[in-house]
Amino acid sequence: MKITVLTLFPEMYEGFLKTSIIHRILEKGLAEIRIVDIRDYSNDKHRHVDDTPYGGGAGMLMKVDVVHRALLDNISNDHVYTVLTAPGRRPLVQKDLERLSTLDELVIVCGHYEGIDRRFERYIDEKVSIGDYVLTGGELPSMVMIDGILRLLDEGISAESLKEESFNDGLLEYPQYTRPPEYNGDKVPEVLQNGNHKEIRRYNLKMSLKETLENRPELLEKRELNKEEKELLAEVVNEL
Ligand SMILES: C[S@@+](CC[C@H](N)C(=O)[O-])C[C@H]1O[C@@H](n2cnc3c(N)ncnc32)[C@H](O)[C@@H]1O
Fold first, then answer.
1. DSSP 89-137
2. Whether residue 135 sits in one domain with residue 29
3. Measured between alpha carbons, how far is 39 from 36 in angstroms, rounded to an integer?
4. How many angstroms is it from 67 CA to the middle of ligand 1?
5. I need a labelling partner for 237 at 20 to 30 A (CA). Which of 23, 102, 104, 196 fits?
6. Distance 114 CA to ligand 1 centre (A)
7. Residue-by-residue DSSP string for 13-60
């Protein structure tokens, strides 16, 4: 998969792309990421990319011609999927990352200042928000997207681990523990140490239902529970 990011702040990506799992995925050639400086497409001798909004108002807007030139120069054909970072949309969910991870090529355009001249929106396929809050620019949202997409391409993360993690199955992941078996009097649940895989699976499923009920109950409303899950959820509710 090839991902191109159009940004005014390419330096923000340096550490991100050289660290941990993201670095490993790129080293393995599972994805290619290009960071493009939008400023290179300014026709202005001072490399200006923004201007004041018509009608007044606070802040500066990125110019449509500059960003559009950057986009045109960095897509190989008209079918390349283009995303604009923008607050105020339905926030990104895991299913969106799964969908985006199946693309061959993706361009992410990062807004900054007060955003981009509205006329740029006709050249993009989708606007993506990472949450109902406003950040200074689309750079962190683009990294959130890249991180979430790339880890789905990683052969190093087992299918089992992806299957079990939060949201994958409409439930939150169950709590997990590692050594020591006891810390400050707090013990790892006995059942996880007894090696009985059937019991462990059932216990983890119950804990997953409990986590979801306590933290994101609306997820349970959206999901059809099977017989075993209904039984376990009833146990959870009884024990509350
Ligand atoms: C300061 S914000 C602009 C906010 C805009 N004036 C508004 O009120 O909606 C600058 C840019 O950061 C990016 N951005 C900020 N918050 C974001 C979020 N939650 N998700 C995605 N992008 C965001 C967008 O690209 C946005 O154009």
1. SPBP-HHHHHHHTT-SEEEEE--BTT-B-GGGGGG-SEEEBSSSS--SB
2. yes
3. 9
4. 16
5. 196
6. 7
7. GHHHHTSHHHHHHHHTTS-EEEEEEGGGG--STT---EEPPTT--SS-
Rounded to 5 degrees, what are φ and ψ at 107? Answer: -115, 130
Task: Evaluate: CB of 131 within 6 angstroms of ligand 1.
Answer: yes
Domain with 230, as residue range(s), is: 162-239
Note whether 103 and 205 are same-domain residues.
no
pLDDT tens-digit readout, 190-227: 999 999 999 999 999 999 999 999 999 999 999 999 99
Centre of ligand 1 to C-alpha 101, Å, is 23
Condensed to tens digits (0 to 9), the pLDDT of residues 18-32 reads 999 999 999 999 999
Kindly tell me the sign of the dihedral angle through the C-alpha atoms of 92, 93, 94, 100.
Answer: negative
Q: Indicate if 56 and 14 belong to the same structural domain.
A: yes
Tell me, using a 6 A CB cutoff, whether residue 111 lines ligand 1: yes
